[in-house]
Amino acid sequence: MIPLVEARGIGFATRRTTILDDISLVLPPGRITVVLGPNGAGKSTLLRLLVGELAPTSGSIAYSGVPLRDLPHWQLAAKRAVLPQSGTLAFPFTVYEVVALGLDGAGSPVAGRSAQARIATALEQADVAHLAERQFPTLSGGEQQRVQFARVLCQLAAGRIHEPRQVLFLDEPVSGLDLEHQIAVLETARRLATEGAAVFAILHDLNLAAAYADELIVLKSGRQVAHGPPAEVLTDRLLAETFGVRLAIRAIPAAPMPFVLPQARQSAP
Amino acid sequence: MGASPARAATAGVGVTLAAALQRRRRRTAFVFGLLMLIVAATSVLSLGLGAVPIPPGRTLAALWTSVTGLPVDADAARDSLVILNIRLPRTLLGLIVGATLAVSGALMQGLFRNPLADPGLVGVSSGAALAAATVIVLGERLLPYLPFAVLPFAALPIAAFFGGLLFTSVLYGLSSGSGRTSIATLLLAGVALGAMAGAITGLLTFMSNDQQLRDLTFWSLGSLGGATWTKVATILPAFIPMAIALSFLGRSLNALSLGEAEAFHLGLPVERIKRIVIVVVALAVGAAVAAAGVIGFVGIVVPHLLRLAIGANHKVLLPASALLGAALLLGSDILARLIVAPAELPIGILTAAIGAPFFLWLLLARRRMVT
To answer: Domain named ABC transporter: which ranges (chain A) (predicted)?
Structure first.
């Protein structure tokens, strides 16, 4: 099966420094790939390369076999949606208007009743329907993030008309959310994956990563240091070498799911 | 996020949402209707008021007979002469310039994602002002050396227009590299170039004689006086691109409000849109400044008021700005004609007197909102 996204040996360098070096990965449909790594490891740069926002200085990226640079903007918008880390708005757009922006980009815009239905569904899915008439700048950070998530869901729903093979990119999607909504966002991502999408997420919480990732990629200083299912990747050694912390990884007895507690520090060897 | 209890109320939320959308649409339609009424009313007033006052009824009658070509009596003939030759071009110029300044403001604010942005910031106004000052002060000395015969009445608008375009192009060149435009660099370079243009304009002022000084002052304060059909016809082509752009830029600016990266993610050709906005604004504002001088604050006040009334959606904000801008400038022009009649106040004084306190209030209100 052709992977939705395939990156071969991609790197990104400015005149002075190399930010990312020789990363290869595939995003297959139905799977959640989570990127971990300390600050400045190049996680966001990797995401920006994969979504087409930056052009790699080496290597190549293809969406379903088509080179990324050959895809026009609007076609790309039907194939992938991106949840940014945080967004500000200088103007008093309503939540409904912000979510409706998801319908506008991809090729022929959706209009009329079906547009309204898609927006309403996206509002529901991100649990912000009750905020629809509020002005976006007056919302709390977490609420704003959920509205952005609704917009992204709306874009995917609109793009599905043209393109069934879609990728969802999430840049630290749970950083400003309460526990209930952290789980809800990742559950929605899981549901989209089950329906055939590929999901690529940057996370900081190792336990959420272990619980939701099918595949983990660990970056350090622009290089890939580990790659595989959580149970194989998350080891005491990796935590020590990559994150510089001495913590013990435990496993939930019933399931092969690793977890880590900060309190386990003392008992680490 | 199916876990939420809000799901149970799906149907109810759908109904209230539809009702809310309906309310918003009605409100927008009402505001548009009101704006058109105000534009029509100010236009009739503008045609009627002046050294020879003509009541609204006779104004409309004069317009009607000049369209239909019906025979009229002496009084009506005099009315239509005054209206058609003097006041109609002035009124049209006011409508066009007002609409242009307000729409340009809304476009710039959308592009910079900043409600305080203004066409003056990207160097259009300062470039146009410098070129116009050059023509006023050095015109007689330069004219013989020009390769083609520039008609004296057209020299000022043409120079101002190209000055604005030149400055905007230079700024755009400075701030874009490797296919991307840095908005921050654009703003800061705009401030620097504006200061430079101000210095040279100041030098020209210093060099000028009494008559030139009067011309300079009058022009830098802005005025719709001296509008002729020739002037209107000369600058009209520059406004056409903006009128066309109005129809499709709204959607793009909405997406751009989220940020450039987000607009790209949504599938917009961001760089092309930025280029279109800058060129369209340079053209239209260059022409507006050339025709009516420097008129400030319309571009800030109008979009802000409208955002309070109908929200931030550029699809409705841009056409509404055109209407309110036209009405506001024409209203200011009527005041400028009446306050010190039979003399005329420069219109820029009025818009600045209203606009500057408004701008300060806007700044303070924003600061309160942030803290």
So the answer is: 5-246
